[in-house]
Design goal:
- The protein has 3 helices and 5 strands; from the N terminus they run αββααβββ.
- The protein has about 170 residues and is an alpha+beta fold.
- The chain has a 5-stranded antiparallel sheet with strand order 3-1-2-5-4, covered by helices on one side.
- β1 and β2 form a beta hairpin.
- It is globular, with a radius of gyration of 18 Å.
C-alpha cells in the first residue's frame, strides 16, 4: 500500500474527499472510480470501481407522473435497505474489504514505470460540480481482467467493489 508524503497529492486527495463527502451526504453519488494510468504510454492499467447504492435517498417530487422504467431502475429503487447492523459488524466488513484490497497485490500485475491516477465520480445530473471538475470518458481498460471484491453495507448505503486490470502482453 502506498502512502504519500507529497503535500500537493495530499491536498488534492483532501479536496476530492471534501467534495465526495458533500455528495454522499446529499445522496448525489452512484459510483467512484480510481484509474491508474501509465505516464509513458497513457494506457489505463488499473481501474478500481466502487459502486454506491444509497438507501433512503431523498426523493424529488415531480409535477408529472411517469410510469417506472424497470430497465433503468437504480438499485435503490429495486432493493430494500439491509437489516440494521452494529457498528462492529460494519467495521468488520470494511476491514475485510481493506484486507482484500491489500492482498490484491498477489494477482495484480506489477506496475512498470511511472504512473498517475484520476478520480472519476458518477454524480446525479443536478449535482453542484466545482468548476475545476470536468466531464470524462469512463477510462475503461481494453481487454481487461475483472475481479469482483467484497462489498460492505450500512443502513444508509451499500458499496460494491470491482478491480479491472490489464495483463502484460
Amino acid at each position: 500500500m502506498l502512502v504519500t508524503s507529497d503535500d500537493q497529492v495530499k491536498a488534492y486527495i483532501n479536496k476530492i474527499m471534501a467534495q465526495l463527502n458533500k455528495w454522499m451526504i446529499g445522496g448525489k453519488i452512484s459510483k467512484l472510480v480510481v484509474v491508474i494510468t501509465s505516464k509513458e504510454t497513457g494506457e489505463h492499467v488499473e481501474r478500481w470501481q466502487f459502486d454506491v447504492q444509497l438507501f433512503n435517498k431523498p426523493v424529488k417530487k415531480s409535477t408529472t407522473q411517469k410510469a417506472p422504467d424497470k430497465e433503468n431502475a437504480t438499485p435503490e429503487e429495486t432493493e430494500p435497505p439491509p437489516p440494521e447492523k452494529t457498528e462492529k459488524e460494519i467495521q468488520s466488513e470494511i476491514q475485510a474489504l481493506y484486507r482484500q484490497i491489500t492482498a490484491s497485490v498477489t494477482f495484480l500485475p506489477q506496475l512498470d514505470g511511472n504512473c498517475t491516477f484520476n478520480v472519476l465520480v458518477y454524480a446525479d445530473a443536478d449535482s453542484d460540480v466545482p468548476i475545476e471538475w470536468g466531464d470524462s470518458d469512463a477510462k475503461e481498460i481494453k481487454n481487461a481482467e475483472k475481479v469482483q471484491l467484497r462489498s460492505f453495507s450500512t443502513s444508509n448505503h451499500k458499496v460494491d467493489t470491482l478491480v479491472s486490470y490489464r495483463l502484460a502482453d
